[in-house]
Design goal:
heterodimer, A: about 110 residues, mainly beta, 7-stranded mixed beta sheet, 11 strands, B: 4-stranded antiparallel beta sheet
Chain lengths: ~110, ~110
Amino acid sequence: SAVISQKPSRDICQRGTSLTIQCQVDSQVTMMFWYRQQPGQSLTLIATANQGSEATYESGFVIDKFPISRPNLTFSTLTVSNMSPEDSSIYLCSGSRGLDTEAFFGQGTRLTVV
Amino acid sequence: AQSVTQPDIHITVSEGASLELRCNYSYGATPYLFWYVQSPGQGLQLLLKYFSGDTLVQGIKGFEAEFKRSQSSFNLRKPSVHWSDAAEYFCAVAPNTGFQKLVFGTGTRLLVSP
C-alpha cells in the first residue's frame, strides 16, 4: 500500500466559513475517494475524485457544498463550504491503485464547526 | 443497493479470549469483502480482504475471516485477543466488477478487559 498524508489533521472552524483539506499520496494512485464519518457513525462515500475532470458525487452530496479537485495522480483536495455544525465530522481520503486492489486511507481530518 | 450489517455495536472480550465479529452483506453477486480497523485518533487500516478463492482468509495481527456465501457473511475472528486490539472494526464491501468504492457497515467497537 501507499502512504496518504492529510492536512490539517484537525481544525475548529466558524460556521459560514470554508475549509480545504489536502490529501497527498506518496505514489501514484488510479483512484481517490473522499469519505465522511459523522460522530459515532460509519463512513459514507462523498465522491470519487477524478484526475483532470469533475468529481463523481454520491447521492446526497453536491459539488457546491463539497468541491473537489484532483490535479494529478498523487494529490486531491476537498473543500467543505459554508460550514454548519452538522458538517462536524472526520473526513478521510482514500486511494487505490486500480481494479481488484484494496483501498488505503489517510488518518483523517477531524473538523469541528462552531 | 448494497448494504452491510454489523449487528454488534459493542463487544467486550477478556484479554486472551477468542473473538468473533459478525458481518452480513446484501448484494446481488459476491462482492469484494474487507475488514478495516480504526484505532482512536487513527485512520483506517486494512486487516484482510476477500476477492475470490479460498474462503478462509488470513490477515495481519493474527486475524482471519471466513466468507460464507450461503449466509452472506464474512465474520472476523481472532483466537486470542490482546489489549492492543481494542478499536473500532468496520466490515466493508465493494462490487466485484472491479474495486470502485466501499460501502461500510456501522462498525463494532471492541473493548478488551484485563
